Amino acid sequence: MMSIRSVVAGCGHYLPAKTLTNNDLSKIVDTNDEWISTRTGIRARHIVETETTSDLAANAAKMALANAKISAEDLDLVVLATITPDYSTPATALVVAEKVGVKSGVPAFDISAACSGFVYALTLADNMIKLGQVKNALVIGAETLSKVTDWTDRGTCVLFGDGAGAVVLQAKETNDTIGILSTKIFADCKHTTELRTSGGTSTTQSPGFIIMEGKEVFKYAVNALAEGANKAIELANLTINDIDWLIPHQANIRIIDGTAQRMGVDKSKVIVNIENVGNTSAASIPLALSQNIEQGKIQKGQTIVITAMGAGFTWGGAAIKI
Ligand code: COA
To answer: What are the backbone dihedrals phi and psi of residue 10, each rounded to the nearest 5 degrees, phi first?
Structure first.
């Protein structure tokens, strides 16, 4: 039966030029490359110097638009997932819309769901497309986590990085099972303290810095990531064997490996880029997706499952036929 589907028309990504290696970090806090790489899988991360979240997002968006072969004028929705917006208000999505040349009148707004932000944003855009409200949606995940990192806390500062990824979703009326096959998002309000910023605009006028109970987050993450992915697979009427690639949120290589193991997915099918970018929160999945499409690893016609987990706790997954 003909139905409206959200098709991935193009992807893009952007990383700031400056990198911070584990050896660089060992000059700032009491740590070393061996500890960081064995506990997290991270060896380097990109860090902004003067760029803002909207700068990173706009660069990723321009690449996604070019790959989708459409102009910013064709867009009728901009959704940006971030926990490091340029301002509390207006939404960074509007700043990005202005930078890339989106028409006046087009809705643009931010989503705050931490590392699950991109899955949340994709879910929303997909549903607006399926309702017939939107034809071309720009969905972005972008972060400058270095601005909310406590550079004196070795337990957190080694984990995070800056970056952006973007996807253009396009409405397509078709009989084929393509594009976004399923989405599912979750949250658990009993865990608002384990991973958060130390301040808040309503209390301190500053977001403060990321504070985290690492072990608690770790324990929750494997279950949540596996649940997000498995639910997406089930809702798309697929089995694990139908999946070409699993793209888990890049938080920690041990969490990624644990998730794949729990799901029964072979390591060779798991997309990993954490070594060079660290945890880029909402940017993590679209960044990995775009890089791997560009490198030719993820190819047209393949089925991928994305899954994320983050502060809140929030989590969720989606199945996508590229
Ligand atoms: N360098 C060297 N030593 C460090 C260190 C660092 N960067 N950070 C912590 N340590 C030390 C600790 O102080 C502790 O020392 P002690 O035993 O003398 O007290 C020791 O290493 C073990 O610390 P611990 O916190 O138990 O390590 P861990 O194996 O739990 O790993 C994390 C810590 C943060 C890597 C891990 O808990 C984690 O990845 N959690 C999830 C984080 C995450 O992904 N968050 C985002 C989710 S979206």
So the answer is: -175, 150
- Known catalytic residue at 32: no
What is the token pair recorded at 265?
A: 């997915």
**Residues 50 and 162 sit within 8 Å (Cβ to Cβ):** no
Report which of 297, 296, 322 is spatially closest to residue 306, judged by C-alpha positions.
322
Q: How far apart are CA 121 and CA 112, in angstroms?
A: 9
Tokens at 109, concatenated:
């707004």
115 classed as catalytic: yes
Distance 14 CA to ligand 1 centre (A): 28
pLDDT in tens, 230-262: 999 999 999 999 999 999 999 999 999 999 999
pLDDT tens column, 154-173? 999 999 999 999 999 999 99
Tell me how far apart the alpha carbons of residues 227 and 263 are, in angstroms, rounded to a whole number: 9
What is the 214 CA–ligand 1 centroid distance (Å)? 6
- The DSSP letter of residue 199 is -
Question: Within 10 Å of residue 235's Cβ, how many Cβ atoms?
Answer: 15
Whole-model pTM? 0.97
| Whether the Cβ atoms of residue 92 and residue 138 lie closer than 8 Å to each other | no
Amino acid at 31: T
Distance (angstroms) between ligand 1 centre and the Cα of 90 equals 36
Whether the predicted pLDDT of 201 surpasses 80: no
Q: Is 189 a catalytic residue?
A: no
Selecting among 46, 59, 249, 252, the annotated active-site residue is 249
Specify whether the CB–CB gap between 208 and 150 falls below 8 A.
no
